Amino acid sequence: MAAIDSFGYLLHAFGTPIQFVGKAITVEALPIQEAVERALPKGWSTVHILSDAKNVIQMLQKNLITSWEIETICEDVWRLM
């Protein structure tokens, strides 16, 4: 994941292997959770998440019924927001 400011300057970059998970939806949701968790200690009050996983974004925005497979991840993100 990479964090950039409104001018496009890199603020933070992070990468880590993800342990084996059975579903692609989980692999898409975990980095979003990690990004929100890392933004809080940095004091970032506004964070824009960019992802190609439209269904995960819609679930996080509560525009789509949350899949049971990532319900706990979504709940963590909502709590952190």
What are its keywords?
mainly alpha; two-stranded antiparallel ribbon; 41% helix
Quick take:
By secondary structure, this protein is mainly α.
Your description of this structure?
Strand 1 (2-4) and strand 2 form a beta hairpin. A two-stranded antiparallel ribbon has the order 1-2. The chain is globular. The chain is mostly helical and 81 residues long. It is 41% helix and 9% strand. It contains three helices and two strands; from the N terminus they run ββααα. It has one domain. The protein starts with a strand and ends with a helix. This is RNase H type-1 domain-containing protein. It comes from Solanum tuberosum.
Q: Structural class of the secondary elements?
A: mainly alpha
Q: Considering DSSP H and I runs of 4 or more, what fraction of the residues is helical?
A: 40-55%
Approximately how much beta-strand content do the residues carry? 5-15%
- Figure out the total of helices: 3
User: How many structural domains does the protein architecture include?
Assistant: 1
Low-pLDDT sequence parts: none
Q: What is the CA–CA distance across the termini?
A: 18 Å
Order of helices and strands: EEHHH
Biggest sheet features: 2 strands, antiparallel
Q: What's the β-strand tally?
A: 2
Question: What's the gyration radius in Å?
Answer: 13 Å
Give the averaged pLDDT, no decimals: 90
Major β-sheet strand ordering? 1-2
Oligomer: single chain
Dominant shape: globular
